[in-house]
Amino acid sequence: MKRAAAIAFVVLASVSCGGQEPVASHGPQGSPATPDPSTPAQNPTGSASPEPQPATPSPPAFQSKVSKISRDRLPHSWRSGCPVSYQDLRLVTMTYWGFDNKPHTGELVVRDRVTDDIETVFKKLYDWRWPIYQMKLVDAYKADDFDSIEANNTSAFNCRRATGSSNWSNHAYGEAIDINPRENPYVTASGSTAHQNAKKFTERPMKGKGVINPGDKVVKAFAQVGWEWGGYWSGAKDYQHFSKGGG
Question: Is 217 helix (H, G, I), strand (E, B) or coil?
Fold first, then answer.
C-alpha cells in the first residue's frame, strides 16, 4: 500500500514539474512525416510557388498583297478624263495596327509604280505598332473627300482637283496618301481647319495617338522612299498628306 502511494506521488510530481508534451510522430525509421497533399508547394524561401502563366501570343506578321483593280471597285473615284487609267492603278490589301491596339486589314488604291513604296512604309508602321484609325477606299464615301476625312479614313487614290486649285491633285494620279486626317488636318495659313473634329490637332508639334510631327519616324520613313510631307509646306499645312515627289 505504501509502495503504491509512493509511485503515485512520483508520477504526480513529474507532471507538475513541467514534463514535456508528446512529440509528433515521424515516418518509419525517423523519416519526416508524409506532407499533406492539400498544402501548397513551397519554394526555398518558404513562400508558395507561383502558378505558371500562359505565354502571350505574338500578333501576326505584316501581310500585303498587290492586285489589279476592276472598274466596278471605283464607281465614284475614277471616271473618264482622269489623268491616269484605272488599269494603271493597283489595289494594295494589307494589315495595319489599329487605334484599338489590334491588327486589322485595310485597302488602298495607288498607281502601279508606287506599290513597293507603300508596302515598304506600311510594313514599318505596322512593325512599330504605329496606329491608323481605319483604311478604306474613298469610294466607301462616294469619293467625297470631306466625308472621308470626317470619318478619319486613311485613303489614297481619288480623281479630284487639288484643294483650292484647278490642277489635278497627286491623289488623282494615285501617288498621294492621307493618313489619319482627323489627327493630322489640313490647316490654312491662318491656322484654321474645315473639320470641327480636328480643331484640337491644328498645332505642331503635339503628342497624341496617330499624330504625325515634323522629323518623326513616319515622316522619315516616307522620305526614304522619295515621298514628301505636306506638313513642311509654306503657308497652309497638310499634316495628313504624303505624295511622291511632293505636291
Answer: helix
